[in-house]
Design goal:
heterodimer, A: 503 residues, mainly alpha, two-stranded antiparallel sheet, B: 128 residues
Chain lengths: 503, 128
């Protein structure tokens, strides 16, 4: 889908990058339906992801010096027209989404072929690309209502995608329905909040709105808008007590979708939270309400401890990973609620590192589904010997989840602990370490089943397909790479945090 | 159907537009399907054609937007569509875009109708 570059008219593709970021996956979706061929559908998905990745890396390079790209759709200037606004934070999250999408694409070929009936393939890929479009749109847009629209695009697509897991396990239908109801409630809360803000300011543009909200922090309309938005987004990102939809949806969705959504969907919701908290309602507003200390902080600690405890007692590998995701969201929220630049840096970097780690682990779980007939821990017994490469990747992922030095998880946890101590909140550091110990327990259970519980003494190697292994190992090596070389991730998240905190 | 086309192409300067026209268009097929038979309706507009329809509508919409790239303008800036005057360009732009919306909406409406009307029987207990 490369666009021919004509030199006759004065135009440069670089200026159009923000819209191309959305257009490439968006156009690919109907194209897939239009062509209607399974193999071509997969190729289009892969190429669209790859092009998106290139575009997002380009965008990140453009804004890496702290500049901001503003793109006006249809040539209408911002307060009236819709604006796409790219800064360091946006671009970083865009890179995460596109990277995950590109990594999981080769994996999809076999995984989808195995789990979804053939007649659904083209529509499945189309829905998947719409989901990618929605997530990217949420991140790139500078218009609050547009955030809602794109959020709904991605959510509707993900309800469909999750329900398609029903060919493996009928429970996917109920969990998709569950997610549909809860997700819709969340979206409703979110749009009510936006409506209230629109009532106060009369604008939908984020920057404009932020300017107009200044000095109105005592207005009860603004405060209730804030509350509605936090709860609405909280449902989407599975803040601890609002997480019930997540474990089931992740357990029963097709493996490929679980891997993608676990690494991106909640992260995008966290991005929305950051954007609303820090760009639209300034940090001063947060301090005035003290909402971080009294709401987000206790909930994030609860998530880190309770969700990790539940994860220990899970029977299903995917369920275990899902609960661990809730716990990890707790870490990110903890970083936010430290309410300092270093805390934000930790949150943003953990957002990226956890995405990479989880995608690797969920892909491993999907490989077990294909080769061992399920992802229950009993299915995994002795898999360390029959599927050596896949299981080795599982170990790398688990280590990164625990935060062992040399892996991506270590970096973000280290920065988080550092941020906590720096701000004199050393009890938080103890909580983080305690929660990591719980992670050791649940990851230990997985590794124990893989290598030390050989139920039926199988020794014949029955490895997962090569395309899947490639994806799994790219993700695992990324875990190690970002654990050893931290220049890119730290400098970008540092810049993003600075820009969020100053504004 | 005629009315649908009227609403479609007069949408830019009188009430109406692609969405309404698409629904009216779909209603034609849906009523035909209800009055006669689903099988007859499916002969007129086979389900695979409906799928292509809704994909085509979206493609039409986006490619209209993309054209303005090559004229050096931003996405969906219709002023770039005509070489003579921006107003003409805007006129063409909204016409084509509304056509895209119309095709997609009628496609989706008919697809939803087909999906509900030709629903398979309830899930057996044994399948759970």
């Amino acid at each position: 889908m490369s666009l021919p570059i004509s030199h006759s008219d004065s135009f440069s593709l670089v200026e159009q990058l923000p819209i191309l970021q959305i257009l490439v996956p968006f156009v690919s979706a109907p194209l897939i339906v239009f062509i209607g061929n399974r193999t071509i559908a997969w190729w289009i998905t892969f190429l669209a992801s790859l092009i998106s990745l290139l575009i997002s890396i380009n965008l990140l390079l453009l804004v890496n010096d702290g500049s901001i790209i503003s793109y006006h759709i249809g040539g209408w200037a911002p307060p009236i027209g819709i604006e796409y606004r790219v800064d360091a934070l946006n671009a970083f999250v865009l890179v995460l989404i596109a990277l995950i999408s590109t990594i999981v694409a080769p994996y999809a070929y076999k995984s989808v072929g195995n789990e979804i009936p053939k007649e659904h393939h083209t529509l499945f890929y189309a829905a998947y690309l719409l989901c990618v479009t929605g997530l990217m749109g949420v991140v790139i847009t500078g218009d609050v209502f547009n955030v809602f629209v794109f959020l709904e695009i991605s959510s509707l697509a993900s309800y469909v995608l999750i329900s398609l897991g029903s060919h493996r396990d009928k429970r996917a239908l109920t969990s998709a329905f569950n997610y549909l109801i809860i997700g819709t409630i969340g979206a409703t809360f979110f749009v009510i909040g936006i409506g209230l803000l629109y009532m106060v300011t009369g604008t939908l543009n984020m920057i404009d709105m932020a300017g107009l909200l200044e000095g109105k922090s005592s207005s009860s309309t603004v405060r209730s808008a804030f509350a509605f938005i936090i709860v609405g987004v909280g449902l989407k990102l599975a803040i601890y007590p609002l997480h019930i939809w997540l474990p089931k949806a992740y357990t029963f969705a097709p493996s490929f979708i679980t891997a993608f959504l676990a690494a991106t969907a909640t992260k995008v919701a966290i991005y929305i939270l950051l954007r609303f908290m820090f760009t639209i309602f300034r940090p001063s507003f947060l301090e005035e309400l003290n909402v971080l200390n009294f709401v987000i902080l206790p909930l994030s600690i609860a998530a880190m401890i309770i969700a990790s405890l539940i994860a220990i007692f899970q029977k299903d590998f995917k369920g275990l990973l899902a609960y661990s995701s809730i716990a990890q969201v707790g870490y990110i929220l903890l970083g936010i609620s430290i309410m300092s630049e270093s805390g934000l840096t930790a949150a943003i970097i953990h957002l990226f590192n956890h995405g990479i780690t989880k995608v690797a682990l969920f892909m491993v779980a999907g490989a077990y589904v294909i080769k061992r007939g399920g992802s229950l821990l009993t299915n995994l017994q002795g898999a360390g010997f029959t599927m050596p490469w896949t299981s080795a990747a599982a170990v790398v992922g688990c280590l990164s989840l625990i935060g062992v030095p040399g892996t991506a998880g270590f970096i973000s946890k280290w920065i988080l602990v550092e941020a906590a101590i720096e701000n004199g909140k050393w009890p938080l550091a103890i909580v983080i370490i305690f929660s990591s110990l719980l992670a050791v327990v649940y990851c230990g259970r997985v590794i124990e089943t893989l290598y030390f519980k050989n139920g039926n003494d199988e020794t014949i190697v029955n490895e997962s397909p090569l395309t899947m292994l490639i994806s799994i190992w790219i993700a695992s090596l990324a875990c190690i790479y970002f654990g050893l070389s931290t220049d890119i991730t730290i400098s970008v998240s540092d810049l993003a945090a600075k820009m969020l905190y100053l504004k | 159907m005629l009315f649908a086309f009227y609403v479609q192409f007069h949408g830019d300067y009188s009430p109406g537009g692609g969405f309404q026209a698409g629904v009216i268009m779909a209603v034609g097929i849906i009523i035909y399907g209800i009055v006669f038979d689903m099988e007859h309706a499916k002969k007129v507009l086979p389900p695979w054609f409906v799928h292509k329809m809704l994909a085509f509508g979206v493609l039409l919409y986006t490619f209209t937007g993309v054209i303005s790239f090559f004229r050096g303008q931003n996405f969906l800036d219709y002023s770039a569509l005509s070489r003579h005057s921006p107003t003409h360009g805007q006129h063409y732009g909204i016409l084509i875009i509304e056509l895209g919306v119309g095709i997609t909406v009628s496609g989706v409406m008919i697809a939803i109708f087909y999906a509900f009307a030709s629903r398979t029987s309830e899930i057996n207990d044994a399948e759970w």
